[in-house]
Amino acid sequence: MYAVETENLTKRYGKTYALENLDFTIDENEIMVLLGPNGSGKTTLLLILATVLKPTSGNAKVMGLDVAAQPTQVRRLLGIAFQDARGFWRHKPADILRFHASVCGVPKAKADSLIETFFKDLELWDARNKLFMHLSGGQAKRLEVSKVLVQRPKFAILDEPTSQVDLRGKRQIWEQILKLREEGSTILVATNEVREAEYLADRVTVLDLGKFVVCDSVRKLKDSITGGDIVELEIDTSEPKTLEEALNQIDGTVKITNARENRFKAYVSMAESWVPKMTEICYQNKARIHSIRITEPSLDDVFLHFTGRTLRENNK
Amino acid sequence: MRNVIRLVWFDLKPELSPPVWIVMEWVVFLVQVGIYGAIISQLVTNPVIGDYKQFYAVGLVIMITFDMASHTGRHFVEHAHEGRLPYLLSLPISRSKLFLTIALQGATELALMLSVPLIVTLLIIGNLTWVSVVACILALFFLGFGVAGLMLGLSFIAFKSSDLYTAMVTGLSAVIIRFSTVLYPFIVLPSQYASAAAFSPLTYGSDLVRFILGFDPTILLNPYYAVAVLAGLAVSTLGLGIFLAQRLVEGVKSA
Would the CB atoms of A51 and B252 count as touching at under 8 Å? Predict the structure, then answer.
């Protein structure tokens, strides 16, 4: 059984499709990252899975429970950190987390201990008794994520969990999300930050304009780009032309350019298997390698590869 | 049920610490009855009405009930606009319990807000008994639920434009209060005013409360009729309001 499964899931607002016939699965104890630009349908999908929105057509199941037919049971299994941390303006962060924990059935002693831990780990300790309306954007976002961390649900949904958070804070939140998965939670993260996706994802699902584009592990998605890896070489050789021809014969080579006499740039698929073969050829050709620099494609390149547009272009 | 109480308390807590606006409402009521009520009762000396100050005090209680019930509807809209509604909708509480929470919170605020005005009014009338208090509270809750349902039903407008919603609710409030028997009895109204007043829920609420408190029944509407109208209003508008709001927030209307 999948932890999450959707079949022909569609959400329509008037004539606009926010999601269109989406088939999508998440395995248990997996971190699935939804990657897509603004307006790609990420948040709509999360809200449907969290039973906040009802689908126009199609099915969605969380841990085998239908989100439309058994919404209350689904809500008992999940916790969601929303994209916009808003709401209880006149409450204090400590009260908000205590309330959330109690409504979600976390025993008081455990909740108090977790709240203290996350306030300290996510640097909210000094702000715990401020009113919510006085928190900075980053603090409000960390508080939003803390709700899910304190709840420790079977299925955690995080919508852009580190937007507005500084670099150190991002890393702290990512570590906590990984810990949550280690404890057995299934996690769905929506983001348009490539670094976040690369750090967290077991698999990435790319959405564009409400439609499913591709889903796989980060490694496989990158490897699926033919010639996506760039290997820059500095090689001392007396016969650069011969060497270039030999390198061109290696499986996975898409293109070799010889920028300067001893500098080569190879566009290859799967650099990790290409480089050992290259070193062997250099040895056979008595060429001496001075330096190797490998650049792999980013998820932005993956998005570009599958949709013809970059994430950054789409977010503008 | 424990979660319903938790949610009601969580929402009410900041309003009660300290309860400034509730106390301010009491002060406004006392000033209104003590000064304006005393003066206007000197001017209105119609023998059909008797002591107008008593009539006026009940009218003020009805207006507070109306304001609080409208506030409950607006509160729901504010929740949606402030982004709090999606959070509430994601909590492990059934939708019916969530709407019960909204209604209970409104009812609790109404009870807190009315406690002093109602007791003062009953003292002015000289009818402060358990029976009168309980009967009044029941009648006012029926009225409150009806008005809250009406405002919830209208909340779909707010999702299109909050300005339009505010304008409509303000206009509707003005009409519902003025064209009613809140401040003047049915029998003294000119016929065209009386016809309009028959459509205001406040007419039935105020006449029923006055009947319970021992006002002359000949100047009031039939109490059985008032009970039927208020009960019908509460059930239909609250039911419709919850139905519309639920469909609206979960986006089924777009299907």
Answer: no
Enumerate domains of chain A plus CATH numbers: 4-222 (3.40.50.300), 226-296 (3.30.70.1340)
Give pLDDT tens digits for B120-151. 999 898 888 888 888 888 888 888 878 877 77
Taking an 8 Å cut-off on Cβ atoms, the answer to whether B83 and A84 are in contact is yes
Report how many domains make up chain B. Answer: 1
ipTM beyond cut 0.90: no
Please give the Cα distance from B159 to A81 (Å, whole number): 23
Calpha distance A30→B208 (Å, rounded): 62
Q: What distance in Å separates residue B11's CA from the closest CA in chain A?
A: 8
**CB contacts, 8 Å: B87 with chain A:** 82, 87
* Residue span of the structural domain in which B46 resides: 2-254
Q: Residues A85, A139: contact at Cβ < 8 Å?
A: no
The residue in chain B having the minimum alpha-carbon distance to the alpha carbon of residue A157 is B90
Say whether A104 and B91 touch across the interface (CB within 8 A). yes
Task: Give Cβ neighbours of residue A83 (< 8 Å, ≥ 6 apart).
Answer: A43, A159, A160, A163, A190
Which pTM was predicted? Answer: 0.80
Question: Residue A97: exposed, middle, or buried by beta-carbon count in 10 A (0-12, 13-18, 19+)?
Answer: buried
Q: Give chain A positions within 8 Å (CB) of B13.
A: 91, 95
Q: Do B82 and A86 touch (CB under 8 A)?
A: yes
